[in-house]
Design a protein that fits this description.
The complex is a heterodimer of chains A (about 210) and B (about 325). Chain A is of the alpha/beta class and about 210 residues long. Chain A contains eight helices and eleven strands. Chain B has twelve helices and eleven strands. An eight-stranded mixed beta sheet of chain B has the order 1-5-6-11-10-9-7-8, sandwiched between helices. Chain B has a three-stranded antiparallel beta sheet with strand order 2-4-3. In chain B, strand 5 and strand 6 form a beta hairpin. Chain B is about 40% helix and about 20% strand. The longest helix of chain B has 18 residues. The two termini of chain B are about 20 Å apart. By secondary structure, chain B is an alpha+beta fold. Classes of the chains: A alpha/beta (about 210), B alpha+beta (about 325). Chains A and B meet through strand 5 and helix 7 of A and loops of B.
Chain lengths: ~210, ~325
């Protein structure tokens, strides 16, 4: 089967730019992407590659629905939405962790239902189900850190990178749920029909990752 | 009256072709009611693609369901034939929710079931019909074939803990080699077997490229019988026109509570999800107190709406 254009969804922002550099070194460059522009789609027909910038939390949807053949998504998004896709590589970048944080000195009263504020309801539910704790999920879309301060929740489940925001809001990590990093993901059908290109990219990125370890 | 094929939708065109294909191989049509007792699905909930079932109370007070699946009804309504083979095909509407949505959808599904004394001949015929079904819709297709017992034996040999085995199977389904490494390292599992599992998960290619590698990879794993069955199964394609569209891929994972042996999935170019899914389901038969085996598959026709057949150069059946 003849390979055609490989459609790649990258997360907008610094992580996406870092990852693009890895892809370019792997032989999938598209110089136009580096030009200052408000465009969201870039292609290099010679290299048979088309990139598009999308909201980081949407990458998995683009890939699962086949709008992108491959993409780069955080493990947090993959755990939250559980898309039916291949997870081909841990790119060892965008490192952080999914954690439970609470006001400093918090003591969990196990006689009560624990109120958990989070953007990641599925991850929080799975985690607390695994430890057998009854919880009440409060789904928020941002500024999660203020929920315990205002008495909206007892704890939060969120991504922690350096811990500075937590510290500034008098919160501390009480449990790490899972380490997070950027993952190379592929649509299952695209993997079959663009196997040569995808396998070459995985091989080259794998070599780059080995060089850094 | 002559019917102009142009007035038919893509799904309808596909249905006619598939019907003709199955009938030509001696499969009998199987027509069933749209309803089934809800109890049947409660007992076999994991077998269903989606958990949600549309229910209603019949005038006699019985809780009924609009069918979310066809296979369970066929088994329930078929006689146990351990020394015979029954070949059936169906074209039914099923009702279920799509992933990530909270709305029920009416989905047109066609498929076939081969029930009874299942031997290599039956498995080969069903595999050929699965490939033929995909070829009826588009010449650009791939049929991925795996052997579930071969994979589960390897995973069972790695850890006795159910949650670890489940996590490893999930990783194989995602071709997620890095997490296989993490799980095995964190739980002190045998490094040599871990490496074999990773290689198995990453293998992808035609039978002629993958089978020799499997022979080497699995030579000390006690998988000779399963590997021999896989080899016999894919042998049917050696002289078939579909030879180049067949791949061996262990990421085809089906629920091990119901499926065993040969399992497969079919993909069409430009359609993001698999459009065909099937395999041997002897374990489901046992669960439903049947002594015979079974193999079958379903073609999900709802995906064809987004498929431009003209662009794909639709081939005639």
């Amino acid at each position: 089967m003849m390979d055609t254009m490989l459609n790649i969804a990258l997360p907008k922002g610094r992580l996406g730019e870092r990852v693009y550099d890895m892809f370019a070194r792997a032989g999938f460059s598209c110089p136009a992407i580096k030009e200052n522009s408000r465009k969201l789609i870039f292609e290099n027909t010679a290299a048979k590659v088309r990139y598009f910038w999308v909201k980081p939390s949407d990458v998995a949807i683009y890939v699962e629905r086949g709008a992108a053949d491959i993409g780069v998504a955080g493990k947090d998004i993959l755990l939250e939405y559980e898309p039916d896709i291949y997870e081909l590589l841990d790119l060892k970048t965008g490192l952080c962790r999914m954690a439970v944080a609470a006001p400093v000195g918090f003591q969990d009263d196990t006689a009560r239902t624990l109120r958990v504020a989070t953007k990641f309801a599925n991850i929080a539910q799975n985690y607390y189900a695994s430890v057998g704790r009854d919880i009440d999920i409060i789904h928020l879309n941002g500024s999660i850190e203020i929920a315990p301060i205002l008495g909206l929740s007892d704890v939060i489940v969120d991504i922690v990178e350096t811990g500075t925001t937590l510290k500034e809001n008098h919160l501390e990590v009480i449990e790490t749920i899972v380490p997070i990093s950027a993952r190379l993901v592929a649509n299952k059908s695209s993997y079959k029909f663009k196997y040569t290109q995808i396998a070459a990219l995985v091989r080259e990125l794998g070599l780059q990752l080995e060089e850094h370890t | 009256m002559k019917i102009d094929p142009e007035v038919l939708t893509r799904e309808e065109q596909a249905i006619f072709r598939l019907r003709s294909l199955y009938r030509s191989r001696g499969y009998q049509p199987y027509k069933m009611s749209k309803f089934e007792e809800y109890d049947l699905y409660v007992k076999n909930k994991d077998f269903l693609i989606s958990d949600n079932i549309l229910t209603f109370t019949d005038t006699n007070g019985k809780l009924m369901a609009l069918k979310p699946d066809v296979t369970l009804s066929i088994i329930k309504n078929s006689k146990d034939l351990p020394d015979d083979v029954r070949k059936l095909y169906y074209n039914e509407t099923v009702y279920r929710t799509a992933k990530g949505t909270h709305r029920f959808r009416e989905i047109m599904q066609t498929g076939l079931e081969c029930i009874g004394k299942i031997d290599d001949g039956c498995i080969g015929e069903v595999l050929l019909l699965a490939a033929g079904s995909l070829a009826c819709i588009s010449p650009s297709f791939v049929l991925d074939i795996s052997h579930l017992d071969l994979l589960t034996d390897l995973v069972d040999g790695l850890s006795p803990r159910t949650e670890i085995r489940k996590a490893l199977m999930h990783c194989v389904g995602e071709k997620n080699l890095h997490e296989i490494s993490d799980i095995c390292r964190d739980n002190d599992l045998d490094p040599a077997r871990t490496e074999i599992l990773k290689q198995l998960a990453s293998l992808y290619g035609t039978p002629e490229t993958v089978l020799p590698r499997l022979q080497t990879l699995l030579k000390d794993c006690g998988a000779a019988s399963a590997l021999a069955q896989l080899e016999r199964a894919v042998k049917v394609f050696e002289t078939s026109p579909y030879k180049d569209c067949i791949r061996i891929d262990f990421s085809v994972i089906s629920d091990i509570k119901y499926y065993n042996g040969i399992v497969f999935k079919g993909f069409l170019n430009h359609i993001p999800d698999s459009v065909l899914s099937g395999g041997q389901y002897d374990r489901l038969m046992q669960k439903m107190h049947r002594r015979s085996g079974a193999i079958g598959f379903a073609v999900y026709l709802d995906e064809l709406q987004r498929f431009d057949l003209k662009e794909e150069g639709l081939c005639e059946a």
